[in-house]
Amino acid sequence: MVINLVRLRKVEPNDLPRLYEFNLDPDANRMAATIPRNADSFAARWENRLDDADVIAKAILVGDLLAGSISCFKHDGSDHIGYWLGRDFWGKGIASRALELLLEEIQSRPLYARVATSNRASLRVLQKNGFVVQSVLASPADDRFLACEEAFLALK
Hints:
The chain is α+β, with helices and mostly antiparallel strands. It contains 5 helices and 7 strands; from the N terminus they run E-H-H-H-E-E-E-H-E-H-E-E. The longest helix has 13 residues, at 39-51.
């Protein structure tokens, strides 16, 4: 089974070109209701993440293949979870297993996540790992996100 091959390790600088490619996928951006970052913005964001001691940023590996990234970061003073997988790794339980592994490492609660309600796969990943929808709101567009209906989830 593929999920038995899933492991996490710290994101390394040489992972960033492949993670940037994942960031550009139009289907992934449509599902996540996001606007892909340009190369400079992407590099600056990851440089900040890798330098921030409060951010846990992990590469998701399947065997030796880089499948995506998962992280825990502060947003509005609370700990949030986010993840992104390359399309070749969708629908195989990899995101669910990666989140399960991250949650074993992060003991603090509550944790929060937000997801476009149209992204049913991501909602399932979060709910399988104990996150519960707290509210659903219309979120306006900004420089990173498209306007969408968004679910806000918590793991307590």
